[in-house]
Amino acid sequence: MELKPLQIGDLTIKYPIIQGGMGVGISRSSLAGAVSANGGLGIISSAQIGYDEPDFDKDQNQANLNAIYKHIQKAKEISGGKPVGINIMVALKNYEAHVKASIEAGADVIISGAGLPVHLPEYVNGSGCKIAPIVSSEKAAMIILRNWAKKYNRTADFIVIEGPKAGGHLGFKKEQLDNITDKEYDNEIKKIIETVKQFEEKFEKRIPVIIAGGIFDYNDICHAFSLGAAGVQIASRFVATYECDADEKYKQAYINASDEDIEIIMSPVGMPGRALKNKFVRLIKEKPVPVERCFNCLEKCNPAKVPYCITKALVDAVRGDVDNGLVFAGANAGRIDKIVSVHELMAELIKVQ
Q1: Does 202 share its domain with 313?
Q2: Is 64 helix (H, G, I), strand (E, B) or coil?
């Protein structure tokens, strides 16, 4: 199958591959810039992106805003001016500020999930920045697109459908993850695509649908296209690249993992997530880990009641403490067996000989 370029409005992405945004600190300028330079669309994650900024301990919000600007600018330099995007979670305390800082820094697209981005069109108004919600169900797609149409008289520039095999926070209930089959979710994808078509007709514009969650190789990409996708989003495979922003021990944790080392955990805010089994995961299943300080990350997080601090767990991991930190991973991470360059991975994914 010929993989045609991904067209998002006036943006042309040579290969229909978006690298999924991964926080904390997993996909920043190095990875995102390299992906865009090699023909895909690189995505930075804004979640606690400034964790290693000198003023992070004193003022997390300002450190993150400074880092958003720095990493978008740097990624654009690495990419040679090609489009670069950012993933901003709705659940963040400073969501609007992250959106506006990203626009100021020159982000070409904003992808937004972990909640319903109902106000996103307002925040990007007049900027020309392309926007996409992440959805996992037909219901969520309809709610967001109907809301944007009614309130802002606009629609999405593209849609990301994130399935149950994704890593990190998942838009499913625990029992859904335990029971849903590939065939059932393929049918859900088709329903979402039909919903999107209604808004394509209403606004007389193409809304590319991107499928994410468990996309591992060329065959998975072809399957996504057979369902009606215009592109795919891949995250876990980009962790095991030289350019990934995480510590080498984090990458090696992926290489060492088997299928049996991946499990569903619960986030402090009640969302299920997929992560690698380690000492930390075993600990939080037994008892809460007291939160010693709040890093002001999530809007609906009460430090006195949550079972652990997700910022601390993710920062510890990205710095290389993969035993005592939280290592998010997709369902197919156990199939990854070596570290390669982004160039090599892209060539493999698009079947370049």
Answers
A1: no
A2: helix
pLDDT score, position 87: 98
In a domain, 1, yes or no: no
- Assess contact for 333 and 236: CB atoms under 8 A: yes
Q: Residues 135-164: pLDDT tens digits?
A: 999 999 999 999 999 999 999 999 999 999
Domain membership of residue 261 (yes or no) is yes
Domain co-membership, 279 together with 240: no
Structure tokens at 220: 């998975």
Domain containing 99 — which CATH number?
3.20.20.70
Helix, strand or coil, per DSSP, at residue 3:
coil
Residue 325 lies in domain: 248-333
Counting the structural domains of the chain, the total is: 2
Computed over every residue of the chain, the mean pLDDT equals: 95
H or E, element range at 234: strand 231-234
Dump the DSSP string for 83-100: -EEEE--TTBTTHHHHHH
C-beta atoms surrounding 100 within 10 Å: 16
The predicted model scores a pTM of 0.96
Helix (H) or strand (E) holding 2: none
Determine the residue type at 216. Answer: F
Residues 224 and 179 in one domain: yes
All residues at 6 or more sequence positions from 314 whose CB lies less than 8 Å from its CB, including other chains: 23, 24, 25, 47, 48, 325, 326, 328
Residue 114 lies in a domain: yes
Chain segment 238-276, per-residue pLDDT in tens: 999 999 999 999 999 999 999 999 999 988 877 899 999
Instruction: Specify the pLDDT at position 352.
Output: 67
90 lies in the same domain as 134: yes
Residue 299 has pLDDT above 90, yes or no: no
